[in-house]
Write a structure and sequence with these properties.
Shape: globular
Radius of gyration: 17 Å
Strand content: 15-25%
Order of helices and strands: HHEEHHEEEEE
Distance between the termini: 23 Å
Number of strands: 7
Strand order of the largest sheet: 3-4-5-6-7
Number of domains: 1
Number of helices: 4
Largest sheet: 5 strands, antiparallel
Helix content: 10-25%
Structural class: alpha+beta
Length: 193
């Protein structure tokens, strides 16, 4: 039980302390004017944090929290409706606008995506394929115009660990890699603390 409580306390501390204080610095500069983290990594961390807040449920069998993640698209973390019919607004609307394949985008899903920090985002299939497993998610961030706006494609799943690879082109990947090392992904490049 203590181990479960420690995990809950750690996540609560992350949500109460790290995110309000540090989330802005993920996509801004430190005191010396240098990026705290590459801004595209800040986007992935923003998505991870939003996913962790999306629909946590208590699991009576383990006395822990089970997460049911939003799997349709990135934009839905902003535009999907809560129990009161209001947009969830779990991510910045500019991050939602960077979704390359939205199923929800305000009133107009035909609107062209607007890259954020030179990167486009989208939810991708899990390594085994498919979209049905709501207890896991995978997302990709890739340069809008390779190599002008960036060289690396980044992938992240529910673990919060980010891997990167120079694909030699834009467009990202459609599926989270089954074998990150075997497919030459660098990482972990960054990890949510």
């Amino acid at each position: 039980m203590f181990r479960d409580m420690r995990g809950t306390v750690s996540m609560l501390a992350f949500q109460l302390i790290f995110v309000p204080v540090c989330a802005h610095s993920l996509v801004s500069c430190d005191q010396r004017g240098k990026p705290a983290l590459p801004p595209e990594i800040g986007l992935l961390f923003e998505i991870h944090y939003a996913q962790m807040r999306f629909n946590p449920q208590r699991d009576p069998s383990t006395n822990g929290v089970v997460h049911e993640f939003w799997r349709a698209d990135v934009a839905g973390l902003y535009y999907s409706k809560d129990d009161h019919g209001q947009p969830r607004k779990l991510i910045d609307p500019r991050t939602a606008a960077a979704d390359a394949h939205p199923t929800i985008r305000g009133a107009d899903v035909s609107q062209e995506p607007e890259a954020r920090f030179g990167y486009l985002l989208r939810q991708i299939e899990l390594p085994e394929g498919g979209w049905a497993d709501k207890t896991r998610f995978a997302v990709v961030a890739y340069p809008e115009v390779y190599p002008t706006t960036g060289r690396f494609t980044y992938v992240m799943n529910q673990s919060g660990i980010v891997y990167r690879k120079d694909l030699g082109r834009g467009g990202g990947v459609d599926r989270y890699p089954m074998n990150l090392v075997g497919e030459s992904w660098d990482g972990p490049s960054f990890q949510i603390p």
